[in-house]
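Bench log. Compound arrived from synthesis this morning; before running ITC I wanted a structural hypothesis for how zinc ion sits in the protein. Inputs:
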Amino acid sequence: MKWIYNVEAFLLDIFFPNKCPVCDKDIGYDELICRECEKELEFVGDNYCPRCGKTECICQKEEIYYDRCFSFIYYKDAGKNGVLALKERHGTGFAEYFAIKAVEYLKENELSNKIDVITSVPVTKRKMRETGYNHAHIYAKMIHRHSGIPVNGKLLIKTDKTLVQHELSAAERKQRASKAFRFIGDECLVRGKTVLLCDDIITTGSTLNYCAKVLKQAGAENVICCTIAMTQLGDGKDIKKNADVLAYK
Ligand SMILES: [Zn+2]
Ligand SMILES: [Zn+2]
């Protein structure tokens, strides 16, 4: 049936030319990003801890609730622009480009058959009402499209409680952020199961960790995290900024 999808994409391209989600240049109907942007992506390879997913391992310093974490690129240049495009709703091709890589990774690491359900880090209910859009879930749905593994975007929610917090200390903010995520699905969907938890980016890892904790409390046996990008070590300013945005978005 894939050829039908290709014919549809080809015809659509005649009326609505396909654009690179990163730089907005016209690309072929069967391409997801342009070659120049692809060349600019900096892949992380296996230059990180496969357990915590970070270039500087934090496994001994913190309690990590997820079991494994993988990412593909550093959050910089074309990689950064692609993630921002995805957040702003026009980076679907960028999410699909990495979803294909995620499916390959799962196969290579013999994980494809072990994952029971794919889910994503939620945005707040208010943001969902305003935009009707969760960029992390676009990535999750693309992995579902290329793997056939069931996807469920209604397992976790994020509350608005973290929004007003200027006068709170860092410890209080962390405490609040940890309570921002709740499990709202049917527990039988995760009990004893392996969950693939998707997000666009890993910075401190705390958002993924809060979500993994909630999934484990609901009975999940394993949680594997899967993000497109990671912030680069040494880029302290960016990491700090992103950590704030991510932990409390
Ligand atoms: Zn491009
Ligand atoms: Zn580690």
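What the model suggests: The two ends are 40 Å apart (CA to CA). Residues 64-248 form a domain with the Rossmann fold fold (CATH 3.40.50.2020).
ITC booked for Thursday regardless.
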